[in-house]
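DM from R.C. (forwarded with permission)

"hey, sorry to bug you on a friday — could you get me a structure for this? deadline for the figure draft is monday and I only need the backbone to look sensible"
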Amino acid sequence: MPIHQRYQDGQVVESVEEPASAADVKAEAQRRIMALVGAATMEACLIKQLNASMRAIELSDARQARALTTAEEAEASALRSMAAAIKAIRAASDMIEQSPPIEVSTDPRWEA
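My reply, with the result:
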């Protein structure tokens, strides 16, 4: 994070680390979401989330017509868990942005 230094007579007399910015918090949230879905790039992350959403809709539609197989139920459960984890990351990001810490990646509010 940025360090603000105060000088007196050409000498550093105080160094203060500044809190992270909202952009830093958003970047950490995106890093966490990318890791969660197993994506190496932002584009891949968005594609994986879109594909997961489309598959969840397919499973929901199938559930209306018939009982899901055991494998489909497990897949639906995994998709719900992934969606819940992404929502939790986004909620934590919103909370952390209100009072950013100096070090974003280790802030315990990510785990809340």
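R.C.: lifesaver. Residues 70-98 form the longest helix (29 residues).
me: no worries. The chain has a mean pLDDT of 91.
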